[in-house]
């Protein structure tokens, strides 16, 4: 059975309301559905040949495979064969960690930056995981009162199954690792914007923070970004924060202190000095 995929807007609404969605993609569907939300984890059971670009690595998938995606690191997926089948579930950390006893997904080796995202499966393991995903699919459409809790248990069962498997060894270095690292950095930078809540605060705002997230040395990151873009890592961060500051000053009624906090500045005076140094104007003068 192949589920008819909803539009991106409808999918986005379902995710926002429930924090979970599962769908099947058969070879009658061209490509895999995409979604733009930045806070969803992904588990994909795949049969066929494809290539996943993940950080600075290229991962070739053949036959049966299981993939774990995290919103904290961008990746792209390219189908290499016309015959394929995939089950994919996407969910928020809040959906899965409703049970306080569960560890943060970011601490799992499956979803952790620098962890192992892909597993090769034999037919027995593939059919076992597929059966779990089909049960999740059935519960998604059911009226069972506690289906959310049941689906969480199914997701954790897949995670435990993956912990018992050996990781795929079909990793190759990207033919242009510097370009991929720079692209990865720029996407991680952009994912933090726009700021839409004055209580929100940037968590990653200096080169070392980004290097830590990407599990590479900061010097490696700086070289890759400079070599690819001609600008320093710090300059990219500075320019993006300044651009967001201008947008918040011109298009919101937040006070300067709230904007400063949202952009990661501990004190408004630090933000004022930063803004004047970068733009040549004070926040209040720009707003006026």
Automatic annotation (TrEMBL):
Keywords attached to this entry: DNA-binding, Transcription, Transcription regulation
Domain HTH araC/xylS-type: start-end pairs: 179-288
InterPro entries: Homeodomain-like_sf, HTH_AraC
SMART domains given in the database record: HTH_ARAC
Statement: the UniProt record of this protein carries the keyword Transcription: yes
Origin superkingdom: Bacteria
GO molecular function, one term: DNA-binding transcription factor activity
UniProt-recorded name of the protein: AraC-like DNA-binding protein
Native species: Chitinophaga dinghuensis
The organism's taxonomic lineage, starting at the top: Bacteria, Pseudomonadati, Bacteroidota, Chitinophagia, Chitinophagales
């Amino acid at each position: 059975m192949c589920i008819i995929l909803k539009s991106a807007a409808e999918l986005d609404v379902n995710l926002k309301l429930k924090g979970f969605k599962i769908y099947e993609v058969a070879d009658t569907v061209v490509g895999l559905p995409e979604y733009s939300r930045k806070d969803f984890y992904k588990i994909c059971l795949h049969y066929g040949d494809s290539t996943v670009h993940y950080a600075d690595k290229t991962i070739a998938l053949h036959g049966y495979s299981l993939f774990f995606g995290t919103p904290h690191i961008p990746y792209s997926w390219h189908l290499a064969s016309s015959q394929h089948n995939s089950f994919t579930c996407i969910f928020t950390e809040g959906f899965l960690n409703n049970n306080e006893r569960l560890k943060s997904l970011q601490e799992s080796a499956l979803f952790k930056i620098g962890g192992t995202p892909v597993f090769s499966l034999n037919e027995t393991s593939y059919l076992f995981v597929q059966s779990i995903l089909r049960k999740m699919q059935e519960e998604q459409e059911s009226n069972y009162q506690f289906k959310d809790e049941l689906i969480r248990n199914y997701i954790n069962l897949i995670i435990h199954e993956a912990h018992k498997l050996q990781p795929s060894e079909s990793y190759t270095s990207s033919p242009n690792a510097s370009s991929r690292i720079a692209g990865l950095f720029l996407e991680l930078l952009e994912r933090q914007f726009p700021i839409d809540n004055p209580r929100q605060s940037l968590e990653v705002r200096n080169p070392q923070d980004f290097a830590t997230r990407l599990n590479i040395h900061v010097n490696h990151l700086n070289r890759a970004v400079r070599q690819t873009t001609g600008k320093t890592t710090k300059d990219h961060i500075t320019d993006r924060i300044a651009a967001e500051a201008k947008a918040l000053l011109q298009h919101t009624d937040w006070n300067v202190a709230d904007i400063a906090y949202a952009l990661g500045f501990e004190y408004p005076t630090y933000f004022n000095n930063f803004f004047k140094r970068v733009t040549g104007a004070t926040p209040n003068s720009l707003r006026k």
